[in-house]
Fold this protein.
Amino acid sequence: MTDDFEVVIGLEIHVQLDTETKMFCSCSTDYEDSEPNTHTCPVCLGLPGSLPVVNERAVEYAVRVGKALECSICDETRFHRKNYYYPDLPKNFQISQYDAPINEDGRLVVSVEGEDHEIGITRAHMEEDPGALTHKGGSIERSKYTLVDYNRSGTPLLEIVTEPDIRSPEEARAVVETLREILEYLGVYDSGRSGALRVDANISISQDGTEGNRTEVKNIGSTKGVVRALRYEVTRQKNRLKRGGEVVQETRHYDDDRGVTVTLREKEEEKDYRYFEEADIPVLRTTEFKDDVHVPELPRERRARFEDEYGVSDEVAEKLTSRKSVADFYEEVAARVDASLAATWTADELLGELNYRDLDVTAVDAQEFAALVELVAEDELTDANAVEALRAALDDDEGRTPVDVVDERDLRKADDDVTVEATREAVEENPDAVQDYLGGDDEAINYLVGQVMQKTGGSADPAVVNDVLRDEIAQKQEG
Ligand code: ZN
Ligand code: MN
């Protein structure tokens, strides 16, 4: 036996499409802060005799995603009933798609450690979300009873299925992240909504070219969860194979609190679902409208354009484009001030400060931020004081802008007179440091610069202070 293992991963990613109403009825999808079971009607409760009507916007969104993933869009797409019993699904079947999904045969390019990998997209089909179960008293095994809320029932889902082209948990993370970026750019997905993206991961290990049994880990709710669950499965399956055992083909549940996967049930097969055509929904012809569905500039293209147009590095372009809101913000700032200065201030300073405060870029006005960067560009403000003003404005409850803070705290660069005066004082007061400097200790000058910065309340320009100090000491020497 050798250690020649290959990890084989395929993902099924369920995405809630950000429509106003549900997939087959006119109930509002805006239920997050509502009482349970208040966004329901006979259709999404699955009452006998109710008839589903397809949400046109959901179909448009599905086509938009299909185009962005370079899928072929089915001319005549059909819905099927996927039969299974579970309390979150009162009809006893889920309306889904089977042999004529709306999107097929696409591709997604992801970058892993600077290298591009192409992942095949098998299909991206439409279906409905079931209701939500809450197991009271902790985990599914230990709970005393379960509550069911049908508000989510019937929310439009797009299930994006990849080919088993993924070779590591980290690559799986890249797939989910890249997809999330694209969906956000397409405007079909609300990243702020909990449970809007859920992943089922199929994973097996090939050994010496022989494929092992597959397990499916269900319902992973976060990117971090995807990586943890898959790493756990890789180790578990490899250990089993190394000991000469076999991996059982089954469905497993990912326990996020413990970071482990546990057996849920034997894996269902397709025949268990007894798929048959949904006779209440006619065949949907997409030929009429699919040409009118347009895909906007996607993250990869925008990244390349930022590198070209603004001359920013890969790394900075990536930071600036991974969220559409940040990219839009940056372009507004770059329209007003030097593009590379705008890039540094947005990607390094602003995003860092926002991250630290768990804030979104929408918390900042691009024009107000540009006004601050403009002061730096015009040499009226030191970097340190610009950061101070930015921080104060972010923490301010009364809506002060960064430039308001600059004015209030008098943070603009000191006049040269003030700098020179402070330098003279620093030289007078610190003869030891001056001696050290003259003795060849160049570090001593940094200490003196620090003294001047303190005297001027940070408003002096450190580069200027450095020059003035050296002049001042040289003059003293001669005099
Ligand atoms: Zn409804
Ligand atoms: Mn599904």
Summary: The longest strand covers residues 115-128. The radius of gyration is 30 Å.
